[in-house]
């Protein structure tokens, strides 16, 4: 039970303005409010994001100790930001910091700590300048963090071996951490492509500023990425806390269409156990229409039952026509509930970190089709490190498209309950499911880590002076 003194401790949380960042930040804030130390938390979002959260009913579900505060809409709208990803990143970098700092200065209760998304380039400096301990929240895999932290050691973009020679090389040949053996130099070449030049510049700035933070929180859990967590603990000059898996209790997208929810629930209930492939490619990064068509035709050829979330109405209609009575296509669903359904036996995913963690949490093997950024590393972890799925990235043609034949073969293999490899993936997925649940239960690794962090905030152990020089 929280003491009166502890309840007065105040944390301000500033997530990066995107679904994949706000969701895990809200989960962490709920955890902090429920910790033994009982922290009060103020979450800072834009006015647009406040409206999106309100429409989904999120504010009403937040604990009494967690409240929302807003800054003006100084960045491009969430709707359509994918059309100019680089422009959105620059707007967040150049325009969002000042209104957040003004809010910090006018708060009635001075924060005892600020939890800020790692990708907010100005976040650490804003807290340190005010003498407030800054806790950086990393919402992607710890393995990806370790790779980016050593950006200066990455191989040259045009090495002597060329792209073909580098495609099979692993990053651990340049950065001496065995866990990076799953990350290929061909992935690094993509990160360094012309389209990502500016984002990579901001990443370098982020990790330079990070060295002044008082601690780093990870939404992963120790048993999932022990090698990366140990490596990070060796190189960071501040404490590291693992608090995941940060599984959202409520989707940010919401949906008032009760008939639609009942329709897909009834359909899932009618399917045999482990027979349905759940398909979702996320809410942000788009996939070429030619690749979507290959997926649709590959699924048709596999004859596997599938449940596909497609947000575009035109795409939904086309997919439903192709799928016939073997599949169901919907514009929205509660992903965690669907993955937890007994009929779902596989997940075809873009491998965003939130989706990856939800698959781990529910013990569902993954057919990975990454598109960009950390998704490439996540897919490597799924197939090569954890061995709970198949990575389609290596099966692309020269034009970057995975053919319907390869998709059909991969889907068939993943969903074949008599296949030796599929059975082994399911066994390992079940082991990780149990480990993820144990981590957040009382006494688990993440439970202990989160409570340790909360106590450190209450007891004033995160000293700004130590790491701000």
Automatic annotation (TrEMBL):
GO terms for molecular function: glycosyltransferase activity. InterPro entries: UDP_glucos_trans, UDP_glycos_trans_CS. Gene3D superfamilies: Glycogen Phosphorylase B. It comes from the Eukaryota. Its EC number is 2.4.1.-. Keywords: Glycosyltransferase, Transferase. Belongs to the UDP-glycosyltransferase family. This is Glycosyltransferase. It comes from Urochloa decumbens.
């Amino acid at each position: 039970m929280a003491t009166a003194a502890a309840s007065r401790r105040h944390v301000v949380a500033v997530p990066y303005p995107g679904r994949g960042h706000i969701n895990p930040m809200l989960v962490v804030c709920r955890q902090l409010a429920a910790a033994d130390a009982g922290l009060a938390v103020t979450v800072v979002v834009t006015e647009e994001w406040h409206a999106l959260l309100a429409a989904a009913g999120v504010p009403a579900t937040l604990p009494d100790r967690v409240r929302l505060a807003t800054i003006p809409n100084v960045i491009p709208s969430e709707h359509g930001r994918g059309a100019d990803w680089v422009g959105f990143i620059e707007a967040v970098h150049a325009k969002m910091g000042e209104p957040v700092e003004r809010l910090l200065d006018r708060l009635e209760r001075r924060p005892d700590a600020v939890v800020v998304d790692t990708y907010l380039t100005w976040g650490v400096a804003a807290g340190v300048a005010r003498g407030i301990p800054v806790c950086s929240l990393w919402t992607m895999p710890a393995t990806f963090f370790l790779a980016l932290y050593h950006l200066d050691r990455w191989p040259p973009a045009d090495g002597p071996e060329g792209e073909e020679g580098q495609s099979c090389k692993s990053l651990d040949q340049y950065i001496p951490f065995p866990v990076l053996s799953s990350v290929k130099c061909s992935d690094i070449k993509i990160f360094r492509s012309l389209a990502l030049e500016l984002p990579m510049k901001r990443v370098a700035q982020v990790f330079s500023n990070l060295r002044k933070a008082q601690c780093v929180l990870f939404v992963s859990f120790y048993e999932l990425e022990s090698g990366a967590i140990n490596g990070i603990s060796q190189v960071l000059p501040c404490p590291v806390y693992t608090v995941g898996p940060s599984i959202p209790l409520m989707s940010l997208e919401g949906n008032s269409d009760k008939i639609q929810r009942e329709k897909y629930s009834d359909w899932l209930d009618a399917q045999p156990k482990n027979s349905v492939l759940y398909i979702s490619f996320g809410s942000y990064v788009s996939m070429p229409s030619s690749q979507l068509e290959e997926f649709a035709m590959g699924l048709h050829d596999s004859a596997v039952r599938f449940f596909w979330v497609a947000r575009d109405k035109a795409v939904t209609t086309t997919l439903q026509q192709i799928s016939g009575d073997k599949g169901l296509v919907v514009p929205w669903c509660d992903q965690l509930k669907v993955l937890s359904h007994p009929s779902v036996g596989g997940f075809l995913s873009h491998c965003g970190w939130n989706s990856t963690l939800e698959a781990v949490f529910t013990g569902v093997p993954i057919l990975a089709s990454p598109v960009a950024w950390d998704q490439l590393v996540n897919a490597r972890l799924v197939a090569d490190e954890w061995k709970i799925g198949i990575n389609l990235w290596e099966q692309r043609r020269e034009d970057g498209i995975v053919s319907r034949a390869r998709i059909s073969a991969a889907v068939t293999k993943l969903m074949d309950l008599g296949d030796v490899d599929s059975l082994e993936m399911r066994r390992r997925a079940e082991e990780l499911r149990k480990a993820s649940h144990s981590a957040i239960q009382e006494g688990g690794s993440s439970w202990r880590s989160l409570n340790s962090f909360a106590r450190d905030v209450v007891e004033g152990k995160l000293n700004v002076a130590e790491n701000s020089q």
